[in-house]
Protein: ABC transporter, ATP-binding protein
Organism: Myxococcus xanthus
Amino acid sequence: MTNQEPAIEVRGLRKTYHRAFRKGGTEALRGMDLTVPEGSAFGLIGPNGAGKTTFIKSILGIVQPTEGSIRVLGGSPEDPRIRARIGYLPERLHLPGTWTAPAFLATVTRLKGLPVDPAVNLRLLERVGLSDAVGRRIGGYSKGMRQRLGLAAALVGTPSLLVLDEPTDGIDPMGRMEVRRILQDEVQRGTTLFLNSHLLAETERVCDRVAILAGGRVVREGRLEDLARGGVRWLVRFAPGANAEALVTAGFVRGVAEGQYVVEAEDPAALNRALDRARAAGALMVELRRDGTDLESVLMGTVEAAA
């Protein structure tokens, strides 16, 4: 078993914003502790005002914490060598409208201290679906195209850590699928993904771990399957003509919809044994999905309990 350095590790993180000529301040983070394992796809979720953006700016060295310690990729987020290994897509992306996409990526490459290779940057633009727009000025891009360019910029230099704040904002459903594939490919390559998104369905599809932030603190954290209650229940739909009595005998419970049943199975082997019994009874399965509490319900329940 290897002792990997966490990609992100914060302890006792506090941040208070003080207003000029006023006593006191606004405490955005209140003793936050969080560890993001290396190579994980990690999602940060929470209500508006929970402190998510402040946390992201803190781990990037944009905001200085009032108290606490931060380690990113084994070092300080203010170390230029560490920053060069991070890809960042901010929530509010400001791009030079008179530039072209290749010129923008070339500047990002130089800022990271890397040699500019136009062919590499063109492949990046092709990867995010902008190969047909390389000659156009960025000012003429749609919001979705600008988000794609921001993602390409985050991918410059094959970063070890990707920090993405609302990466699919303004992108159509087909584009979201493309972005999701890119992020999954990066995680398979070994990149650590840290995602902040209001689109909880996207977080569920991409991330394997989630932290819920409320009131400036992490109130719940863990693997998605552990956070979602009811993970051992499966919804199964059989084709018309299935023998209901035989299915009940095989351990299936009739659901509300026509042809729908529920079965409990602790692991894939137990699930397959139940399905084998159904097939032996002549039933033909046409749909199978886990009956777990979705991330939205987990978020709402956790925030209400914390309040």
